[in-house]
Amino acid sequence: MTTGASPSAWERARSRVRLEDPFVGWTASIAVALLALFLRLWKLGTPRVFEFDETYYAKDAWALLNYGFERNGTEKANELILQGQTLTGVFKNSPEMIVHPEVGKWLIAAGIKVFGMDPFGWRVASAVIGSLMVLVMVRLARRLTGSTLLGVVAGLLLCFDGLQFVLSRLALLDIFVAFFLLCGVHCVVADRDWHRARMARLVPETVADSRAWGPVRGLLFRPWLLLGGVCWGLAVGSKWEAVYPLAAFGVLVWLWSAGARRSFGVRWPLLRSAVVDGVPAFVHLVLVAFVVYVATWTGWLIHANQYEEHLSATQYTHFDGGHDWPTRTEPDASGFGEVTQSLRSLWYYHQDVYTFHTQFLNDSTHTYASKPSGWLLLNRPVGVAADTDIQPGAQGCHAPAGSDCLRQVLLLGTPALWWAGCVALIFAVVMWAGSRDWRYGVVVVGAASTWLPWLQYDDRPIFSFYAIVTLPFLVLALAMAIGKLIGSGGSRRRTAGVVVSGTFFVLVLLNFAWFWPIYTDQLLTHGEWLDRIWFTRWI
Fold first, then answer.
1. Boundary residue ending a domain (172, 196, 221)
2. Which of 144, 191, 281, 426 is surrounded by the most beta carbons within 10 Å?
3. Residue 358: its pLDDT value, please?
């Protein structure tokens, strides 16, 4: 073992997995997650309406639970469901042309199964998953920084973000894809530690033979990557947008593996790692994710005949000059042939959905649509529910004469967090390029792969809350910047860093509290509401 000021790669690899007291770490992580859960469950059943796209996903979830596939609702479906009627007159017999996979809807269905078909029942799964997302954030930040304190800070920042908070109280799909995506990133980072520690156990301090590839057989099975593949499959099974970060972090896995081999003396590490690490990583991540993704469509596959009968000649198929699915007129197969026939139908269905997303929506408009170039600056929040023109004396309204009150639920991130997060992201880019600290690469690659792909779709209605998948990387950037502020320099520098970091955290908390009424459907006078609408584009 070498000695001196700088530890060897062998020493670094073996010590990297050692963190602070695990009992303290887990206790703090769970405490933050429980705080998040309490906030998200508070009056979860209000407002008692279908908020925004809950009108699709809540009914889809109930149909999946009771019929095995999504059915079209009747015109009075929402009214009947809110009255407690879920059977007669609510659903048609034909399947719905859904445009997103089923994982999130099955999770919503689990909440409905336990608590019933009402607003609390169809939102509770989001609240649980949103709180678990906070837990994973604490663990990931702790692993990246080696500090339980910074992990807790990251978790609390995520807990007190308005966008994450409101999405955790809605039956939409975005909180699910964000959660599974964050889990996938955590698994990839954990694999980096595991891979290096495993190499340190399998080889001496350096590889003496210049022709050597380093250990191969002992690294073919990578358990964290296997778990990551499952998480990525569930993320893509919630929304397709998770494909981009899957590809980006797959490349990072290869580069990290090559870097590990280079640190142990392997020559031509990029090429050699592409073979001995890249291929197994592709199997663990991409192929496993693909298998999991297809498995999430099991309900669809079982009822493929319904889709072949009703949806194989949709407007989306013919939009680009296509034809009916070939499986529509084929005789029903049996055994393994039936499986392959259903899989082919699923492929044709995916072609229709892709056409819908890339072409059919191009000429559409929406009041709350926004350009993704401004999402990180909160250019256009989304109003998901509103009860306006409440007159003085009604519902406890104490507005002055000539004014009124209102209630609103607004999908808006905590401004102090997002705006500071943009600055921290720029800092992360500088640190990754300047110091080549791989941890900042997680932040930069994560933010870029979850945000930049949306720029190619800015000619159709897309919404700022899609940036929920980018938020974790802004939070990580902030936590690591805080770590730099309080962890370097002399006592005066450290004291100043603590003061600045503490002031920022309090500012985020106060900012979240200020917007609490428009996150939770609270009664406000018109003037109080305008005090929280800082820009005309927020209306």
1. 172
2. 281
3. 73
